[in-house]
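During the reporting period the student researcher (J.K.) took over the structure-prediction task from the postdoctoral fellow and processed the backlog of single-chain submissions. One of the processed entries is reproduced below for the supervisory committee.
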Amino acid sequence: MRAGDPDVALMSRVEARDPDALAALYDRHAARLLGLARRILGDGGEAEEVLQEVFLFAWRAAATYDPSRGEVLAWLLVATRSRAIDRLRARQSASRPPARSLEDAGDPAASDDVEGASADRQWSALCRAAVRELPADQRRVLELAYFEGWTQQEIAEKTATPLGTVKTRSRLGLMKLRERLRSYRRSGSDAS
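J.K. obtained the following C-alpha coordinates:
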Protein backbone atom coordinates (compact mmCIF):
# COMPACT_ATOMS: atom_id res chain seq x y z
CA MET A 1 0.00 0.00 0.00
CA ARG A 2 1.17 3.46 -0.89
CA ALA A 3 2.10 5.66 2.06
CA GLY A 4 -0.16 8.67 2.36
CA ASP A 5 -3.10 6.97 0.60
CA PRO A 6 -6.09 9.23 1.41
CA ASP A 7 -8.48 6.26 1.62
CA VAL A 8 -6.33 4.50 4.22
CA ALA A 9 -6.19 7.71 6.24
CA LEU A 10 -9.97 8.02 5.99
CA MET A 11 -10.42 4.42 7.14
CA SER A 12 -8.27 5.12 10.19
CA ARG A 13 -10.52 8.05 11.02
CA VAL A 14 -13.66 5.97 10.41
CA GLU A 15 -12.27 3.35 12.79
CA ALA A 16 -11.91 6.17 15.36
CA ARG A 17 -15.63 6.95 14.74
CA ASP A 18 -15.19 10.19 12.79
CA PRO A 19 -18.46 10.69 10.85
CA ASP A 20 -16.82 13.30 8.60
CA ALA A 21 -14.35 10.66 7.44
CA LEU A 22 -17.20 8.31 6.55
CA ALA A 23 -18.88 11.13 4.62
CA ALA A 24 -15.64 11.81 2.74
CA LEU A 25 -15.27 8.10 1.94
CA TYR A 26 -18.86 8.10 0.70
CA ASP A 27 -18.22 11.13 -1.52
CA ARG A 28 -15.14 9.46 -3.02
CA HIS A 29 -16.68 6.07 -3.82
CA ALA A 30 -20.49 6.05 -3.63
CA ALA A 31 -21.06 6.56 -7.36
CA ARG A 32 -18.89 3.62 -8.38
CA LEU A 33 -20.36 1.33 -5.68
CA LEU A 34 -23.91 2.33 -6.59
CA GLY A 35 -23.16 1.64 -10.25
CA LEU A 36 -21.93 -1.85 -9.42
CA ALA A 37 -25.00 -2.59 -7.28
CA ARG A 38 -27.30 -1.29 -10.04
CA ARG A 39 -25.62 -3.46 -12.67
CA ILE A 40 -26.00 -6.56 -10.51
CA LEU A 41 -29.53 -5.89 -9.28
CA GLY A 42 -31.04 -3.96 -12.16
CA ASP A 43 -33.03 -1.96 -9.60
CA GLY A 44 -32.04 1.53 -8.47
CA GLY A 45 -33.94 1.50 -5.17
CA GLU A 46 -32.53 -1.81 -4.10
CA ALA A 47 -29.05 -0.72 -5.19
CA GLU A 48 -29.34 2.36 -2.97
CA GLU A 49 -30.23 0.11 -0.04
CA VAL A 50 -27.14 -1.99 -0.75
CA LEU A 51 -25.02 1.17 -0.83
CA GLN A 52 -26.40 2.16 2.56
CA GLU A 53 -25.63 -1.31 3.93
CA VAL A 54 -22.07 -1.14 2.62
CA PHE A 55 -21.31 2.16 4.33
CA LEU A 56 -22.92 0.94 7.54
CA PHE A 57 -20.64 -2.10 7.24
CA ALA A 58 -17.63 0.20 6.67
CA TRP A 59 -18.56 2.15 9.80
CA ARG A 60 -18.98 -0.96 11.94
CA ALA A 61 -16.12 -3.03 10.51
CA ALA A 62 -13.49 -0.36 9.80
CA ALA A 63 -11.09 -2.14 12.15
CA THR A 64 -11.20 -5.24 9.93
CA TYR A 65 -9.84 -3.37 6.91
CA ASP A 66 -6.22 -4.39 6.28
CA PRO A 67 -4.29 -2.08 3.92
CA SER A 68 -1.77 -4.82 3.17
CA ARG A 69 -4.51 -6.88 1.52
CA GLY A 70 -5.67 -4.26 -0.98
CA GLU A 71 -7.13 -0.84 -1.60
CA VAL A 72 -10.09 0.54 0.32
CA LEU A 73 -12.08 0.78 -2.92
CA ALA A 74 -11.53 -2.93 -3.60
CA TRP A 75 -12.69 -3.75 -0.05
CA LEU A 76 -15.84 -1.67 -0.58
CA LEU A 77 -16.46 -3.18 -4.04
CA VAL A 78 -16.28 -6.70 -2.63
CA ALA A 79 -18.71 -5.74 0.14
CA THR A 80 -21.07 -4.20 -2.42
CA ARG A 81 -20.90 -7.17 -4.76
CA SER A 82 -21.51 -9.64 -1.92
CA ARG A 83 -24.54 -7.77 -0.59
CA ALA A 84 -26.01 -7.24 -4.05
CA ILE A 85 -25.62 -10.92 -4.92
CA ASP A 86 -27.19 -11.91 -1.60
CA ARG A 87 -30.22 -9.78 -2.49
CA LEU A 88 -30.32 -11.17 -6.01
CA ARG A 89 -30.36 -14.73 -4.73
CA ALA A 90 -32.97 -13.92 -2.09
CA ARG A 91 -35.18 -12.37 -4.73
CA GLN A 92 -35.25 -15.52 -6.95
CA SER A 93 -38.00 -13.97 -9.07
CA ALA A 94 -38.94 -14.51 -12.68
CA SER A 95 -38.35 -10.82 -13.30
CA ARG A 96 -34.61 -11.25 -12.92
CA PRO A 97 -32.80 -9.01 -15.41
CA PRO A 98 -31.21 -10.70 -18.42
CA ALA A 99 -27.55 -11.69 -18.37
CA ARG A 100 -25.23 -8.77 -18.82
CA SER A 101 -21.78 -8.66 -20.27
CA LEU A 102 -18.73 -6.98 -18.82
CA GLU A 103 -18.19 -5.29 -22.17
CA ASP A 104 -21.61 -3.66 -22.18
CA ALA A 105 -21.52 -2.40 -18.59
CA GLY A 106 -22.48 1.24 -18.43
CA ASP A 107 -20.75 4.01 -16.59
CA PRO A 108 -21.26 3.57 -12.85
CA ALA A 109 -21.45 7.23 -11.95
CA ALA A 110 -24.03 9.84 -12.72
CA SER A 111 -22.66 12.79 -10.82
CA ASP A 112 -22.57 16.57 -10.61
CA ASP A 113 -18.80 16.22 -10.32
CA VAL A 114 -17.90 16.68 -13.99
CA GLU A 115 -14.19 16.00 -13.50
CA GLY A 116 -14.84 12.90 -11.41
CA ALA A 117 -17.49 11.65 -13.84
CA SER A 118 -15.08 12.15 -16.73
CA ALA A 119 -12.39 10.18 -14.90
CA ASP A 120 -14.94 7.44 -14.18
CA ARG A 121 -15.91 7.30 -17.88
CA GLN A 122 -12.26 7.06 -18.88
CA TRP A 123 -11.67 4.31 -16.34
CA SER A 124 -14.78 2.45 -17.52
CA ALA A 125 -13.63 2.69 -21.14
CA LEU A 126 -10.20 1.34 -20.19
CA CYS A 127 -11.80 -1.53 -18.27
CA ARG A 128 -14.14 -2.41 -21.15
CA ALA A 129 -11.21 -2.40 -23.58
CA ALA A 130 -9.21 -4.67 -21.26
CA VAL A 131 -12.19 -7.02 -20.93
CA ARG A 132 -12.59 -7.19 -24.73
CA GLU A 133 -8.99 -8.38 -24.97
CA LEU A 134 -9.65 -11.39 -22.70
CA PRO A 135 -10.18 -14.78 -24.31
CA ALA A 136 -13.93 -15.49 -24.64
CA ASP A 137 -13.90 -18.36 -22.12
CA GLN A 138 -12.27 -16.22 -19.41
CA ARG A 139 -14.55 -13.25 -20.16
CA ARG A 140 -17.68 -15.44 -19.90
CA VAL A 141 -16.67 -16.91 -16.54
CA LEU A 142 -16.11 -13.40 -15.15
CA GLU A 143 -19.45 -12.18 -16.56
CA LEU A 144 -21.32 -15.06 -14.92
CA ALA A 145 -19.56 -14.50 -11.60
CA TYR A 146 -19.74 -10.71 -11.42
CA PHE A 147 -23.05 -9.95 -13.13
CA GLU A 148 -25.08 -13.05 -12.54
CA GLY A 149 -23.69 -13.74 -9.08
CA TRP A 150 -22.92 -17.38 -9.83
CA THR A 151 -20.37 -19.19 -7.72
CA GLN A 152 -17.60 -21.07 -9.45
CA GLN A 153 -19.40 -24.32 -8.62
CA GLU A 154 -22.61 -23.03 -10.24
CA ILE A 155 -20.70 -21.92 -13.33
CA ALA A 156 -19.13 -25.36 -13.61
CA GLU A 157 -22.49 -27.13 -13.24
CA LYS A 158 -24.52 -24.85 -15.51
CA THR A 159 -21.92 -24.71 -18.28
CA ALA A 160 -20.84 -28.36 -18.01
CA THR A 161 -17.25 -27.23 -17.47
CA PRO A 162 -14.91 -28.89 -14.93
CA LEU A 163 -14.66 -26.85 -11.72
CA GLY A 164 -10.87 -26.66 -11.99
CA THR A 165 -11.19 -25.18 -15.47
CA VAL A 166 -13.66 -22.56 -14.24
CA LYS A 167 -11.32 -21.61 -11.39
CA THR A 168 -8.36 -21.39 -13.75
CA ARG A 169 -10.26 -19.24 -16.27
CA SER A 170 -11.43 -16.92 -13.52
CA ARG A 171 -7.98 -16.55 -12.01
CA LEU A 172 -6.27 -16.05 -15.38
CA GLY A 173 -8.87 -13.50 -16.48
CA LEU A 174 -8.53 -11.48 -13.27
CA MET A 175 -4.73 -11.63 -13.44
CA LYS A 176 -4.78 -10.39 -17.05
CA LEU A 177 -7.15 -7.56 -16.15
CA ARG A 178 -5.03 -6.57 -13.17
CA GLU A 179 -1.87 -6.54 -15.27
CA ARG A 180 -3.45 -4.58 -18.13
CA LEU A 181 -4.92 -1.98 -15.80
CA ARG A 182 -2.04 -1.72 -13.32
CA SER A 183 -0.27 1.23 -14.96
CA TYR A 184 -3.55 3.11 -15.38
CA ARG A 185 -4.52 2.60 -11.71
CA ARG A 186 -1.11 3.79 -10.55
CA SER A 187 -1.13 6.94 -12.67
CA GLY A 188 -4.75 7.69 -11.71
CA SER A 189 -4.20 7.18 -7.98
CA ASP A 190 -0.98 9.21 -7.99
CA ALA A 191 -2.95 12.18 -9.20
CA SER A 192 -5.21 12.21 -6.14
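The committee noted the following: Residues 163-190 form the longest helix (28 residues).
J.K. will present the remaining backlog at the next meeting.
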